[in-house]
Write a structure and sequence with these properties.
Strand order of the largest sheet: 1-2
Strand content: under 5%
Structural class: mainly alpha
Largest sheet: 2 strands, antiparallel
């Protein structure tokens, strides 16, 4: 009985204990890690990664997977820059174009999967490569900035508006210090909205039902195809929001700035399976997973760990999280005996 109690405790709280230990270790080993400045860097990195990861979570809920989120985010970054710097559109138009692009990509992904029966990994992988190529064509692979030379020989005279840059750079006053960036506030609001939607609404419960047993959900009258398409559209829109925030923070259309978004977002969503022993995709776990990834990368950076070791460490952490989720849960299901 004691072994079973310990196993249940490890499954439910093991990952959170690991997170606390990680914070304590970096606080003691890396000078300045526990400072407000370091916390701001962590929160900024978590915000964009977490928003993308929440989109992935919605596709995981319906037993799908979206590999195109990183390319959608980068496409939104490039599209917003192109709209304002080259086409000289106002910020509102640029934002709406990006959100519409994300929804359209999600719609196409969903249709490929539910109507044309293309496996989700292949459909979203193909979309990823398509977007990577498409976003480079207008500028011949160059980043976008005010004053750049265009392929036709002219000069880009537009610029990022102050209102657009506010989205990515402004910080709200907290206890007389400007600490909380706008992207963090947006991330928390989006995480709360998706948590409520998935956990406390009829539509969210139906999406979980589809992920658990698609055939049974269809037999009770659930429009499975529609919910799957909606899940991919949510994922596309979330990726676009992440790209918009990244563009607003950088103030330029950097073609290479979103290279790690896919891996970090997927890691956050999968780590979320281990939080509180959920063993399924969930918004709260994803938010904690994003925080974990952000703390890990910030700590390694402040300890001057070589950049090429970071992906290895993330992989180790992901494997440990999945062991917590599936192996220990399986042992619990068999009473903790071999």
């Amino acid at each position: 009985m004691n072994d079973q109690r310990f196993l249940n405790f490890a499954i439910r709280y093991g990952f959170l204990i690991l997170l606390v230990c990680l914070v304590l270790y970096f606080s003691l080993s890396a000078s300045g890690f526990a400072s407000p400045r370091s916390a701001v860097f962590v929160l900024q990195s978590v915000a964009i990664t977490g928003i993308l990861a929440l989109g992935v979570t919605c596709t995981l809920v319906v037993d799908g997977f979206d590999l195109s989120i990183g390319s959608v985010a980068t496409s939104a970054l490039m599209l917003s820059a192109y709209a304002m710097v080259i086409l000289e559109y106002p910020a509102v138009v640029a934002v709406l174009l990006c959100l519409a692009m994300g929804a359209l990509v999600g719609l196409v992904n969903g249709l490929l999967i539910v109507k044309f029966k293309v496996p989700d990994l292949l459909a979203t992988l193909g979309m990823m490569f398509l977007l990577i190529g498409l976003q480079r064509i207008p500028t011949q692979g160059n980043s976008i900035a005010t004053g750049m030379s265009l392929p036709d020989g002219s000069v880009a005279e537009g610029s990022f508006s102050a209102a657009f840059l506010w989205i990515g750079r402004h910080r709200f006053d907290v206890v007389l210090e400007r600490l909380v960036p706008v992207p963090v506030v947006l991330f928390l609001l989006i995480a709360l909205a998706i948590w409520v939607f998935l956990g406390f609404t009829r539509h969210g419960r139906l999406m979980y039902a589809i992920g658990s047993n698609e055939r049974a959900a269809a037999l009770v009258g659930t429009n499975v195809n529609r919910y799957k398409i909606v899940a991919y559209m949510i994922s596309g829109v979330m990726a676009s929001v992440g790209g918009i925030l990244l563009a607003a923070r950088l103030g330029r259309g950097d073609i290479a700035s979103g290279n790690n978004l896919l891996l970090d977002s997927v890691a956050a969503a999968l780590i979320g399976f281990a939080v509180l022993g959920a063993a399924r995709p969930n918004a709260f776990g994803t938010a904690v997973g994003a925080l974990f990834v952000g703390i890990l990368l910030q700590g390694l950076t402040m300890m001057n760990a070589p950049y090429y070791t970071q992906d290895f460490v993330k992989g180790v952490v992901l494997v440990v999280a999945l062991v917590f989720t599936f192996y220990l849960s399986a042992r619990r299901g068999t009473g903790g005996h071999n």
